[in-house]
């Protein structure tokens, strides 16, 4: 009577353990995936989480962790799909939004990333990583003030995170708060004394603050720690140029160009140094690397009257030096045209010099030095009216441009406007250009 019952008992014995085994197997695969992820075996982890998902397709954590494994393998598109599913199953998981945002950022979808980071912060407002990540995305889409606020909040929540101090220092530079950035870079250096980027960042800020000696000290350390840092060589060269160590600057620009051949600013800087060291040919080659273009100009003749004749005018004017000091190369590269024009003039190519100065002014109509230099050349060509016009423009742009008052004064005097000329010479002397007083003594009494 018991025989029919035995198979049933046996069936139950086999069925119950099978169900339990299937449930445990899904958990086993999940835990195996976690273990493999921790050990860095992301391929193995991905396979394990896939098995867990096959056995339990409604488990958000399995999708999330598989997404993490994919992201670790740089499969960010695949990771985003897994995070999407994890969020669909559990819309309150702050980490899923944070991780999806990170993968979107890797795909250059910074606005999408920003939305995910913001949602993560809503769900977990005390996570410093979310603020840091959102700050990074904001910075990439040039929302620098928002980025600054996020980095500051991240530091408030986690004062030991050195990366956030560095990111905040860079952001302050973007906002032209170079003075404020110094404290952040200094904090990074205190926490990690071997981080070359912090020395480089602080050195760059010091350059912007005109602390060229301090900048060189920091950039020396940056280069010591990272000898292949082309930017550090570039800025050190710039600082040396500001201190008129043109040979030292030249060597740094050489090295910067060797490390990063497409740095047109380094060619501009090297050209400037070569010009200062008398290598006008080399200067022209470098300025040409930084820019391209040419144009032409015409000159005019005038009648000289009064005691300042053409030869006297030429002699007085030729003693004046152009204000050719190195300054940061703007995106329009007007400074490179200006410096190349000065070099061409020194080589006797007045027409080419005028062409470059024309282009410099076209690109930057507020470039007082370019107007003044062009005025000097026009005067040398005999176009005194044009020279006065350029001096007028230089003075409008810089009312304390003493050399421009001086040159305009001697030209006006040479054209018969003795009163106007002497008033200009007086203003030049008042502004500190002492040679004006010699001209006043000779021609205004």
UniProtKB/TrEMBL annotation:
Matching InterPro entries, A to Z? TPR-like_helical_dom_sf, TPR_rpt, Ycf3
Chain positions of TPR repeats: 26-59, 60-93, 94-127, 128-161, 162-195, 196-229, 230-263, 264-297, 334-367, 368-401
Coiled coil regions in record? none
Tell me which UniProt keywords the record has, alphabetically: Repeat, Signal, TPR repeat
N-terminal signal peptide: 1-22
The alphabetized list of GO BP terms reads: receptor-mediated virion attachment to host cell
GO cellular-component term (any): cell outer membrane
Its domain of life reads Bacteria
Note whether Transferase occurs among the keywords: no
PANTHER family per UniProt: TETRATRICOPEPTIDE REPEAT PROTEIN 6 (PTHR44858), UDP-N-ACETYLGLUCOSAMINE--PEPTIDE N-ACETYLGLUCOSAMINYLTRANSFERASE SPINDLY-RELATED (PTHR44858:SF1)
**Record's protein name:** Tetratricopeptide repeat protein
Native organism is: Spirosoma aureum
